[in-house]
Design a protein that fits this description.
Elements lengths: L1 H23 L18 E4 L5 E7 L2 E9 H5 L19 E9 L10 E7 L5 E8 L4 E5 L5 E11 L2 E11 L1
Amino acid sequence: MGKRIISVLLSGLLVAFYSGAALAQHSHGHGGSSPSAPIKGSSKEMSPGGKAVQSIIAEGWKIGFEVMSMEAHMAMPGMKGHSQQSASSSPQSHSLMVTIQDTGSKEIISDAKVTYSILTPSGKNEAGKLEWSGDHYGAGFNAAEKGQYQVQVKVEGGGMDRKVKFTYDAK
């Protein structure tokens, strides 16, 4: 009986460890700048590549934001033959990735409806839907202009709509 209790406790610890690692697993070394949202709980974390990963806590969900070049994203393990779709008909130079985690249960949210709107440095708008891609929501977009892109992400799920804003500096 004592071995069974120890086994259950160890199993619980492993589950807790790996559920936290699941969110951390999605660090492709993406770049970005500080979040511009006035929502409490915004932060910048460092990915293993040493680049900033932005996140904001909104209504009990941690929404993470990352951007990287499409070339670098497609070179990631498991991406061969995978296409990034966008509402835009122009070439997609970058990949936009959003992760969502319930702050209470630490559960990864994979069934939300996630859309984005990007305002380019010259004032053009691009919008689209982010699709679930194994460990994040993703879409491609064209960051042809240098300067700051303002990105609004809308997440519909859990009976609520959440809107957060991030920025990305294209150099």
